[in-house]
Amino acid sequence: MNRNTRIAVVGAGLGGLTVAGFLQRAGFATAVYEQAPTFSRIGAGIILSANATKVLRRLGIEQDLIEAGIKPECYVSRTWDTGATQYEIVFDAGSERRFGGTYLNVHRGDLHAVLEKAVAPGSIAFDHRLVDLQETGDGLRLVFENGVIADADLVIGADGIRSKVRDILLGPEPPRFVGAVAQRAIFPSERLRGFKIPDCTKWWGRDRHILAYFMTNKRDEVYVIGVVPAASWDSDAASLPCPREELVEAFGDFHPDLRRVLEAAEDVSVWPIYDRERNDCWSGGRLVLLGDACHPMRPYMAAGGVMAVEDGAILSRCLATLDNPADAFRCYEATRIPRVSEAQRISIENSWMRGPTETDWFYCYDPCLAPLAGAPVEDTFQVGASPK
Ligand SMILES: Cc1cc2nc3c(=O)[nH]c(=O)nc-3n(C[C@H](O)[C@H](O)[C@H](O)COP(=O)(O)OP(=O)(O)OC[C@H]3O[C@@H](n4cnc5c(N)ncnc54)[C@H](O)[C@@H]3O)c2cc1C
Asked: CA 216, CA 71: separation in Å to the nearest integer?
């Protein structure tokens, strides 16, 4: 596509910054608009598997992420009451070679601080909340809450589960509350008073599960996220404070090893969990969606963020390779939808690594090299060059 095409990315999350970073490297003038006034260190961790970290390597930020987070030695699935190991995957030099990338746990705030480096300095306009998009005949006009107006030829909606761009493309539709909430806490490891835990454990109960993992190399910060059934979420808030006792009680009949960790937790908050039904329309005209804007999924496979990263790599390759947006968007959707919908299905089933699991199809995938569905020409996009 003509490199004079002006591209606007709405949303500076994982997906938005990935696609913007690659488009800039491919020579497109790409601006990113983010509603938040700045990135803040919100209290949560995130798991980034090799299929995403190998993409972030091409954006030059893998090493910074490794330093900001932790390469866990293992991921263990244990039965809620007996503590029996249901599945264990070891992460070492061998697995890194096989997957082609690292498996990483990191604090979301630290992730964002690093992600910002993936795009050219000054290309993120913070405090820009998109409120409208207007056709201008030869392009699109972006209207922001702060009164700013910007023009672009293409708009990428990377604005998350409550995407405004999605509303404009498909019509407003609230996301679906899945009948569960996440209780999350981050606390210093010293509160464990020497009690040793593996780097990453998922405890599987009958109607609930909980993960505990370290987020830093020093193993000085623990993150727990427990998912429990809930009839409804009656607040407009994205999260609410939660008494620690509620977390302890919710997992009160779990194995003593877990209870010991929960006794140490502090600063607990509770978050509603939403997703959307699968919808295979991700684009129209000059608009295209990626990440949670088009396929939010339950956070049970640790796949939502990494899928957004994969989308960013594939979409940028399609735009760089194909001559017009319609072909690029068709290729992007055809390449992404089968893989993403499988991750959505597994997330709803909550079966990933519950028992013996074939993980190679997921972790070995390389979105920078994978074939583009139906692309008529050789993919000539050079990944890894410096941003313009
Ligand atoms: C409890 C929980 C745990 C999770 N754990 C994991 C995990 O371990 N691994 C994993 O891969 N995924 C995980 N996920 C999923 C992951 O967080 C999301 O899938 C991922 O953040 C999606 O990235 P995104 O870039 O599409 O959207 P987001 O990260 O939501 O980014 C969207 C951005 O757009 C901005 N924005 C929104 N509206 C506007 C607007 N109108 N104008 C301008 N900007 C706007 C937002 O401020 C935000 O910065 C988890 C999710 C939850 C809820």
From this structure: 8
Indicate the residue type of 123: S
Q: pTM for the full model?
A: 0.96
Confidence category of residue 377, pLDDT binned at 50, 70, 90: low
Among protein residues, the one with the nearest Cα to ligand 1's atom 39 is 159
Residues sharing a CB contact under 8 Å with residue 210, sequence separation 6 or more, in sequence order: 202, 203, 224, 225, 226, 227, 251, 254, 258
Which tens digits make up the pLDDT trace of 174-188? 999 999 999 999 999
Distance 15 CA to ligand 1 centre (A): 8
Q: What is the C-alpha separation between 328 and 283, in angstroms, rounded?
A: 10
Average pLDDT (278-292) is 97
Residues labelled catalytic: 213
Fill in the DSSP letter of residue 279.
-
Please report the beta strands in the chain, taking only residues with DSSP state E, as ranges in sequence order: 6-10, 29-33, 45-48, 74-79, 85-90, 104-107, 124-125, 130-135, 140-144, 149-152, 154-157, 176-188, 200-204, 209-214, 221-229, 240-241, 269-275, 283-284, 287-289
d(CA 194, CA 190): 7
Q: Could you tell me the distance, in angstroms and rounded to a whole number, from the CA of residue 159 to the centre of ligand 1?
A: 8
Q: Which of 280, 288, 282, 23 is nearest to 140 (CA)?
A: 288
Q: Give, for ligand 1, the residue of 159, 168, 290, 311 to mutate: max count of ligand atoms closer than 8 Å to Cβ.
A: 159
Kindly report the number of other CB atoms within 10 A of residue 376's CB atom: 10
